[in-house]
Amino acid sequence: MNEPVGLIKKPDDQRQMDRPLDAVPPPITLRYDAEPESEDGLYWRVHEYWAAARKHIWLIVGITLLITTLAAIYSARQPDVFEATAKVQVNTENTNPALGAFKSNNLVLSSSYTDPVYFNTQLQILTSAGLLARVVKTLDLEHNQDYLRPQAAQNRSTWESLKRMAGFGAKAKDEKPLVTDKVPLSTDLAPATSRDDLAEVNRLYPYVGGLQGGLSVKQQPDTRIINISFRHSDPQVAAKIANAVSQTFVTQNIERKTETGETAGDFLQNRIARLQSEIQQGEEQLNNYARNHDIISLKPEQNTVVERLSGLSRELLDAEKERIDAETAYRAGGTASAAEAQVDANAKGLDEAEAELSALKQKRAQLLIEYTPKYPEVQAVDAQIAAKQKYIDDTRSRKTRVAATNLRTRYEQAKSKEDTLRAAYERQRAEAIKQNEAAVNYNIMQQQIETNKSLLDGLLQRAKENDVVMAGTPNNINVVDWAPVPGGPIAPNRFRSVMLAFLISLVLGVALARYLEYLDDSIHTADEVEKLLRLPALAVIPAIGSLKKARGILSGNLSLQKRNADTPELLTDTSGRSPLAEAYRQLRTSVLLSSAGGAPQTILVTSSQPSEGKTTTVVNTAITLAQTGAVVLVIDADMRRPRVHTILGVENQRGLSTILASRSSEKEILEVFEYHKASGLYVLPAGPIPPNPAELLGSDQMRELLVRLRASFTHIVIDSPPIASFTDSVLLSTLVDGVLLVVHGGRASRNIIRRSKQLLQDVGARIFGVVLNNVTLTKGDDYYYQYYYDHNKYYSDSEPVEEPAVSAAASGKS
């Protein structure tokens, strides 16, 4: 029996060992750092689908029942389908020998059909819209209520159809009997729809489509017999339509043969009459066209429009030459020097004034020899010179303006004349072009009339040569068997439809279940832990709710005790043999054997996310360790959201934060520790929440505290915050012997767990393994279900055992 030394002494009434260490063999060592072997074989895939189907069995059952029921109701509501079949024989088509060699001027009236695809062509004619439209008119299917409302003839309810489909129904007494004497074998056929009557074609199109959907045409092998079958919910309608299609096919064939020969003369006569009418209308149109377009004659010597256009063209050329000459003179005489030169050349009246001016200038020069410029006589001569010079300048300027005005007036008159002639020329040219266009159309109309006259002459000659009457043309198609009224339905195969819907819905349900499993990113089983995380699964802690649901199956007559209202997460019954207690004892065994050379002393328990049950795992793991007689200390290092003191019911006024925040003596440290009598655990609560938990946990004081505590306790179990949210656990992982990673079964994300594992491995932390917590036990989980079933069955066969008072040991509360 180990007792704490140095710091704390265990009370005497708790020194008795509660239970010896489980004698279990050491587990097989697996290499989780290596890649797992591939399990993608057929067996593994089938197992995955089987497991998904068992897990979502009610979803699959619901989908299967829903779709199968809907399919059964739908099939039961479908009317019975009857099929009537008629047979026709199609022989090789031969031409009347009397007409086979009749030819005249390369016009063939009849020929022999030796086309190898002739038989296939007849099959296509049988389902053609033209033939079926004639059947619609013959039987008046547009107003036939038996055809339009086929379900009215069947007075059987959906429930009766369901009973018949299951083999429990009998024939209804009020069911409409089959009357066969109202189905005629032949009737008068309606005329075929005209090719030009588009309105009738559109009106009959829906009914033709209905016939094409129910009609089946098939050749009997190695024969020339064609089976014409029609399906309908009314047997009489089916027989009528099958017989009508056969009769129409036979009659239409002989009509086509007769039409080929008899209509040749009618065609020629109709064509002759049409040509005569076209020639007469063409001549009237030609005369009206010539009158409307003022076409008197298209001959050049009688065409006044062309003659006028030629005259205007010549006048326009003369006017254009005149305008160019006037424009040249105007451009040349527009400058001042040119105008003055023209005035000098034409103004002879200025010569005398210039001679007088020259004489005055000479006189002034003589006076200046004797007198000064101020001499009165010299000044008088100067005045005469200025007056004469002014007269000359004014006269020259006036004559220059007059000359320029005359040049511009001549240019404008020439340009106006040219514009007038050009406008008249353009109008006459447009009229000539219009007449040319009219002449082209006139010639075309005239040529068409001449062509029709030539064709009329040829047809009149042909009409005299081709007056032949076809008679005695044989029909190579005949009816072999008329369609009788069918005695019973051939469809629908309701049982096959329901079974097919059952299989499809079953496959759909299994596929949906597998897809839901594929979308589930959480971890459910220990196999997934080892396969995806490559870490050992140390224990699987079942959920309390799943234990209660499986109570009658898993635990036989075992029952869960009433919850402890004070400590609902605590295993207070340490001697219990419930599945939950056994799971924690298995975790204890795995932890004790997880390291070589001895059991680990300091154990850090953490999780990747909040609310995965790590605090509950810390407390219950410490309790199971204490059952071996070891001195166990629980340290609440989750100084962000501490819960250990709440579970164990101890004070939290002082704790780990108090010790780390100050230099505490041994006596002060002793005062902080609490002892939980019910579980035999020593507890170091978190204490007041500090502003800097990560700095305190990563400090030297924390390292020194763990070193001092190692000498006093056999095991130290430390609770810490989630790794994905805070770095506290990463710092603590470097100070302990190993780490237990708690994973909430069915909720924790694989990616977050991988990230948490990587964070621990990056700092060199040793991960003992994974504790899969809060696993729901269902029949779909073969391993866990069988394990706990065998466990409880074993205990129930020996003696009745009651469950310990637990309620949330794996509920996910942290």
Describe the secondary structure blueprint for this structure:
Elements: H1 42-55, H2 57-77, E1 82-90, H3 97-100, E2 103-104, E3 107-108, H4 118-126, H5 129-139, H6 145-148, H7 158-166, H8 198-214, E4 215-219, E5 225-232, H9 235-292, H10 304-332, H11 336-346, H12 350-370, H13 376-465, E6 477-481, H14 494-519, H15 526-533, E7 537-542, H16 544-549, H17 551-554, H18 579-592, E8 602-607, H19 614-626, E9 632-636, H20 644-648, H21 656-660, H22 666-672, E10 674-676, E11 681-684, H23 693-697, H24 700-710, E12 715-719, H25 728-733, E13 738-744, H26 750-762, E14 767-775, H27 782-798
Parallel strand pairs: 7-14, 8-12, 8-13, 9-11, 9-12, 13-14
Antiparallel strand pairs: 1-5, 1-6, 2-3, 4-5, 10-11
Radius of gyration: 60 Å
Terminus-to-terminus distance: 32 Å
Secondary-structure-derived class: alpha/beta
Shape: flat
Question: Average pLDDT, to the nearest integer?
Answer: 75
How many helical elements?
Answer: 27
Q: Major β-sheet, in short? A: 8 strands, mixed
Strand content: 5-15%
**Which regions have little confidence, pLDDT < 50, spanning 5+ residues?**
1-6, 9-39, 97-113, 172-181, 549-568, 797-814
Helix content: 40-55%
Strand order of the largest sheet: 7-14-13-8-12-9-11-10
Strand segment count: 14
